[in-house]
């Protein structure tokens, strides 16, 4: 009797996971900028830390699922410049 085949998820769906984490980092960075402009520096710092966790995870997920591409690299650099550079 044959073992049941494990169906792998569609590759196009896997590409969305690291890019989604990158875009979440963009949200965290913009939210941090808005909060700091309103004088809520503790909350802004928390969002920067959350964004840093998202950056760490998106690279690991992209390497683990072999879904890294040129668009994801460029998007990541742009988002990091906005989140951590501003």
Comma- or semicolon-separated keywords:
79% helix; single chain; mainly alpha; 86 residues; 0% strand
Distance between the termini: 60 Å
Count every beta strand, where a strand is a DSSP E run of 2 or more residues.
Answer: 0
From the helix content, strand content and strand pairing, which structural class follows? Answer: mainly alpha
Average residue-wise pLDDT: 85
3D architecture notes:
By secondary structure, the protein is mainly alpha-helical. It is built from three helices and no strands. The chain has helices spanning 11-37, 41-65, 70-85. Helix 1 (11-37) packs antiparallel against helix 2 (41-65) and helix 1 packs parallel to helix 3. The termini are far apart. The mean pLDDT is 85.
What would a concise description of this structure say?
This protein is an all-alpha fold and 86 residues long. The protein has three helices and no strands. The longest helix is centred in the N-terminal third of the chain and has 27 residues.
Ordered list of secondary-structure elements with their pairings:
Layout lengths: L10 H27 L3 H25 L4 H16 L1
Helix pairs in contact: 1-2, 1-3
């Amino acid at each position: 009797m044959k073992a049941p085949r494990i169906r792998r998820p569609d590759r196009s769906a896997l590409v969305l996971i690291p890019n989604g984490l990158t875009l979440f980092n963009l949200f965290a960075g913009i939210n941090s900028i808005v909060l700091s402009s309103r004088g809520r520096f503790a909350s802004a710092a928390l969002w920067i830390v959350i964004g840093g966790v998202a950056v760490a995870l998106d690279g690991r997920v992209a390497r683990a699922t072999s879904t890294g591409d040129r668009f994801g690299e460029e998007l990541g650099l742009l988002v990091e410049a906005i989140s951590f550079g501003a």
